[in-house]
């Protein structure tokens, strides 16, 4: 579940697809992002236009916190100019009505 969300959100830049894997706060976050890009999308700029094969991610070991699972990720973006930017992501899952869903996402720039 966490990998599918990460692929949709980070690699494909497709908030609508990523929403399929979310609940609670993560869904609210994606709804806000979709509102902020609505004008750009109306102009014909699609997630396929924004996506990049130059984005890779690697999942770390999961951590259990109460009834939730947290997955740390390293997300690396390589620009066309060859510049690498690394972010650290924290994807938290919880069981919602018997299904695991992403309920929180934290992303921060890695200090260089």
Structure, explained:
This protein is of the alpha+beta class and 112 residues long. The chain has one domain (2-109): NTF2-like, domain 1 (Nuclear Transport Factor 2, Chain: A), CATH 3.10.450. It is 34% helix and 38% strand. It has four helices and five strands. It has helices spanning 2-11, 15-19, 24-42, 47-50, and strands at residues 55-59, 63-65, 68-78, 84-96, 99-109. Strands 1, 2, 3, 4 and 5 form a five-stranded antiparallel β-sheet that branches. Strand 4 (84-96) and strand 5 form a beta hairpin. The mean pLDDT is 89.
List the helices and strands and how they pair.
Blueprint: H1 2-11, H2 15-19, H3 24-42, H4 47-50, E1 55-59, E2 63-65, E3 68-78, E4 84-96, E5 99-109
Antiparallel strand pairs: 1-3, 2-3, 3-4, 4-5
CATH class: Alpha Beta
Task: Please work out how many helical segments DSSP would assign.
Answer: 4
The oligomeric status of these chains comes to single chain
How many structural domains?
1
SSE pattern: HHHHEEEEE
Poorly predicted segments: none
Outline of the structure:
This protein has 112 residues and is α+β, with helices and mostly antiparallel strands.
Name the features:
Nuclear Transport Factor 2, Chain: A; 5 strands; 112 residues; 38% strand; 34% helix; alpha+beta; 5-stranded antiparallel beta sheet
């Amino acid at each position: 579940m966490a990998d599918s969300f990460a692929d949709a959100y980070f690699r494909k830049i497709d908030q609508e697809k990523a929403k399929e894997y979310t609940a609670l706060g993560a869904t609210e976050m994606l709804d806000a992002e979709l509102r902020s890009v609505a004008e750009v999308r109306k102009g014909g700029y699609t997630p396929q236009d924004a996506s990049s094969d130059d984005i890779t991610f690697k999942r770390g070991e999961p951590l259990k916190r109460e009834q939730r699972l947290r997955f740390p990720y390293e997300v690396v973006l390589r620009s066309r100019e060859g510049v690498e930017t690394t972010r650290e992501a924290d994807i938290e899952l919880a069981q919602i009505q018997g299904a695991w869903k992403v309920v929180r996402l934290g992303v921060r720039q890695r200090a260089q």
